Amino acid sequence: MFTRSILAASAAVQVLMLATAAHAQSNMEIEEVVVTAQRREETAQSTPLAITALSADQLEKQGVRTVTDLTTVVPGVQIGSVGGSVEIAVRGIGSTNNTEVGDPAVAFNVDGVYMARPRSAAGLFFDLDRTEVLRGPQGTLYGRNATAGSLNVITKKPTSEYEANAQLELGNYSLIRASGAVNLPFSDKVAVRAAFQTAKRDGYTSNAPSNDYNDEDAVALRLHVLLKPTENFSLLLSGDYFRNDYVGSASAPLGQYAAGGDPYTFPISRDGASNQQNYGLSAQANLDLSFGVLTYLGAIRNDLVHTLAGSGRNYRVGAPRPPSSCDPVLGLGCNTIYFDSDEQQESHELRLGNAEGRFKWVGGLYYFKETNNVYANIFPLVAFIQPNTYSDSKAVFAQGTYSFTDQLRATAGLRYTRDHKGRTGGTYVALNSNGGCQMPGGMERPFFGAPPPGCLLYGNVADFTWESTDYKLGMEFDLTPTSLLFVSTSTGYKAGGYGDGLPPLNNKYEPERLTAYEVGAKNRFMENRAQLNLSAFYYDYQDFQVTGTGVVAGQPSAVTVNAAKATLYGAELEGTLLITENDRIDGSAAYLHAEYKDFALLGGDSFSPGFADYSGLTLAKSPEWTFNLGYQHSWSFTNDGRLTVRVQTHYESSKNLDYHNFDVTEQDAYTKTDLIVTYDAPGGVWSLMAYGRNLEDEAVLVQGSPDAQNVNRVAGSGAYAPPRLYGVQLSARF
Question: What percent of the chain has pLDDT over 90?
């Protein structure tokens, strides 16, 4: 049924486009973006995947400044910044377990290196060559398996041409952002590219005692050194550094705990302070052999976080403050959160591939290791101290595409993965702000019996191993030289995990497994002046990992469980039309049905003790409809200058942000509109851009949790995307 629909739609649109071809200009065509989604260079239009690729110019013209901005230009994608972490969901599949034991459902890769904790994702969006958003499981080609998809960020590499550029941006909330890059070709064997970005901005969440949360004070550096000692060998050495010294992120009160009015102004018990550092080194070596290319990609990375944060109100506005509840105005009953994390990762990938001839193939080995030392103290009540959290992943993979004819091709891929995870640590009570032990005076609940030695409430110990074999099968057919049809089935897998406590009662959850079916069409018409891509999918999900706020030792904590079965299906459409040399329309539409078919918790949860059944509810972050639409018009002047005005809008139907589907965590349907005006000077030596984002000043909830601690279904906490932003940017090229 999906196949017939795609074929019919493709044929109908082709007839429509051909009918209007006579009215089109002959010197225009849509930019081709070359991608490496299948581990070989090919255009996005010739890649039989649901992929949205945006070049550096497209990112600039569409106002994509951070990873979260991709939500407004890529169909089926939800990206939000929550507590310093970036949460990415594709087609309703994501992960909200941002702790040291959670894995993202969408792999975040920078220049091919998997980022286990993409907390620095916001600081990586500068001096980019392109971004690639792959929708659907990526089990047979990428480092760590990703059930939902992959977001690939590709930075600009050294070239043989001298180049330099600089940008200065000023905006509201006292924003000052500066960036620049220089490319230095020292010889035909050595080239260097260096880039930087700094950003300083006041917080947009106010009413702490003196400083505002959700601010920015960051610096990012990147250096690439490309060595080509021979014709058939190259070595790329890369290093990057990101640091953000800021107040931090604050959770907004929801429902009964919110006072109403401005959702960006609410009481917080104390000032915050946060320091985040993320840095790493990588090396990629390519050796051209007579039968293929041998590639090694290795990287080491370190992610350091130190946070001090206050609390918001956790009782109904207008009611007397209950005992132990937080009153930010008086500073009574409020917890102070201390969080420290030292995460280290290393990865190694060795692959051999051939992109020539009738049979194109790639195979390889992958190894990943992560260690983490975590200290989280919700002072003065409970602390989680995990000095030894570890995981490693080993995989072998292969995928090949065979061309039966010039038009018909088949693809098959296979991957075996072995994951190992564990930790040693404990949950503690009555620690002081320095982590020392106090006697439990003033605790909410008295100890039953003598206090455990050293304030240890219980140990947190785990050691688990999982294995999986995944596959991909696909067919593709060139209906015309510019129309591609494809169909595929594939599986995805994400390792399981564990919660607090000792085996066998430490809330172990199983790996999630996905079987996906997809059919699509990619079309270019009117001599490459019109483009229309369609895809439809069906997902059969087993043991989907659901993370929500539970209660551990009387305090809110992330708890992950398995939903036995979930079903998702939908369709996406992306299109671009160059109406004239000066007029362009682009847009996308996505439909999504995402439902838990079997989701029963035999032990229940905070809201349904003993037994809970959430079957039939909608997956979090799964709006039924999303639409993106953009129009831009340009005026050319006699001096070769050019003025471009672009307006783009993003619409989403309502969605829930928590698996309980309570009203308090629902985001209503909304529209966000951006306006971008750019003047390009003659020869492109400089440009001046003015922008306004979220002109409606819509407060969009991107994360929400009901209050499990107080079992309150009509109140909770969450995080909002930024309010209206506006500014100007001056760019120069040398």
Answer: 63
**Six-digit token string for 241:** 């550094």
pLDDT at 45: 93
Annotate 146-185 with b (16+ C-beta within 10 A) or e (fewer).
bbbbbbbbbbbbbeeeeeebbbebebebebebebbbbbeb
- The low-confidence residues of the chain, meaning pLDDT below 70, are 1-27, 83, 120, 122, 143, 430-454, 549, 551-557
Distance CA 83, CA 65 (A): 19
| Res 552: pLDDT | 62
What pLDDT shows up at residue 378? 83
* CA-CA-CA-CA torsion sign (135, 139, 145, 147): positive
pLDDT at 428 (0 to 100):
82
Task: Of 615, 534, 605, give the one whose Cα is nearest residue 573.
Answer: 534
pLDDT at 442: 36
Q: Cα separation of 621 and 568, whole Å? A: 13
Give the pLDDT score at 16: 41
The 8-class DSSP code of residue 618 comes to: B
Q: Which fold has domain 2-733?
A: Maltoporin; Chain A (2.40.170)
Q: Summarize pLDDT for 669-687 with one digit per residue, the tens.
A: 999 999 999 999 999 899 9
Q: Which residues pair with 403 in a beta bridge?
A: 409
Nearest in space to 102 (alpha carbons), one of 311, 395, 379, 374: 374
The Cα–Cα gap between 73 and 627 comes to: 9
Domain ranges (residues) in the chain: 2-733
Strand partners, 727: 171, 691
pLDDT of the residue at 733: 94
Question: Minimal CA–CA distance to 3: which of 567, 588, 488?
Answer: 488
Residue burial 470-487, b: 16+ Cβ < 10 Å; e: rest: bebebebbebeebbbbbb
* CA 458 – CA 56 distance, rounded (Å): 51
DSSP letters, 359-398, are: EEEEEEEEEEEEEEEEEEEEETTEEEEEEEEEEEEEEEEE
Q: Tens digits of per-residue pLDDT, 425-440?
A: 888 876 666 666 664 4
CA distances from 226 to 127, 190, 392 (A): 16, 6, 30
**What pLDDT score was predicted for residue 7?**
45
Residue length, the chain? 734
201-234 residues labelled b (16+ CB within 10 A) or e (exposed)? bbbbbbbbeebbbbbbbbbbbbbbbbebeeeeeb
Contact 82, 98 (CB under 8 A): yes
Question: Which is nearest to 586 in space by CA: 595, 576, 596, 573?
Answer: 576
Instruction: Check residue 355 and give its pLDDT.
Output: 92
419: nearest Cα among 372, 462, 368, 357: 368
Distance CA 569, CA 586 (A): 24
Joined together, the tokens standing for residue 489 give: 């089935």
Secondary structure element (H or E) that encloses residue 114, with its range:
strand 113-114
Q: How many CA atoms lie within 13 A of 348 on its CB side?
A: 5
